[in-house]
Specification:
Helix content is 40%, strand content 20%. It has 14 helices and 12 strands. The chain has a 5-stranded mixed sheet.
Length: 422
Amino acid sequence: MFGLIDCNNFFVSCERVFNPALRDRPVIVFSNNDGCAVALSNEAKALGLKRGDPFFQIKDFCTANGVHVISGNHRLYGDMSSRVMATVSSLVPAIEIYSIDEAFIQLTENDGKDEYASLGREIVRSVRRATGIPTSVGIAPTRTLAKIAARFAKKYAGYRGCCVISDDISRRKALSLTHVGDIWGIGRRLGKKLTAYGITTALQLADLNKDEVVGIFNISGERTWRELNAVPCGDPGVDEQPQKQMCCSRSFGDPIDSFEELSAAVTALASSISRRLRKHQLCALSMTVYIYTNTFRSNCGEYSNSAFHTFDEAKSDTMSLVSAATECLGKIFRRGYGYKKAGILINELSHAGAIQQSLFVSHDDRDKRIRLMKAFDAINSHSMAHDIVHTASYLPVNEFVRHEKSSGCYTTKMSDIIKITI
């Protein structure tokens, strides 16, 4: 049996922990540069607002209806996520973190439905008590069914935070009440295709025979069909193709017109992508750096360009990626323009354990960089900020991002810690 722990309206819930005045009020959390809504409270959803709504389109509506607007504070959300996952880890034998607000757990099959429900509700109570974050738990024979169960636990208060799908009757009932587009791995686009075939519910999809499934889906879709029929298909990604590319980009709140500032932003992007490479035990064989101006403001002049770099040996250390990114930026930067966005694309990836070594790279230098990066990551992993140790040219990209309505970093910044006067 699998369990899914899902934090309810996570970004909004994090804000409410430190600002109780937001409880029971419509709240929206916006993306970087206050572009569009990425999280909404139930009260905001009840007003008809949706995720992805651009701020400029709903600004007047929010003001008229008393909707509280907040700029995304992802450092706070990341720290709160770590606290939630640590609390869950203390209650279960194994946890698989799926996203910032979701995690899978694996349970023994010896327990009954009541025992599963009791454990799920204990997780909900413990997380709420330790962090203040409300959660929902879904428990079922497969991960896909657990996701469906968690949706029911979140939607219906009668489940008291935990829904269990433990037999075929409850499975078919849950699938009959689930729209096909709401299935994990299906999505809206494929949901529309299935609707055209007359398949509107998850139960209709599950009841298809294998030949029909093969004619509609790829391997991933067939796996989803099996999981809907309570057949576990292993860990996510087992049969998927290995990752071939990796990208890191950022839009700026105000256009950047100096090379020094843009170089600092690109350095931050290169540092971020190198950290991701090491986390997944991957190395870069080549990279592309690109920049462009605001395409919606033609009166300011438009310019875009990119530069390509090939490494003599696959790299993942921060210094090599920062150096290559800065070199590429120097080739394409043109003065007189205000740049709105910059990005780095890793075009080719290699596993860290299968690097084709170059005759022209010193073995001692390679080992030294590996040891340095291990120390680099170890220090940053034990600090409140992942960039506590960084290259000299580094400047957090958040410095260039518009977040006019951001809350404080209550758990990661000493100056923002809440003070209580007695």
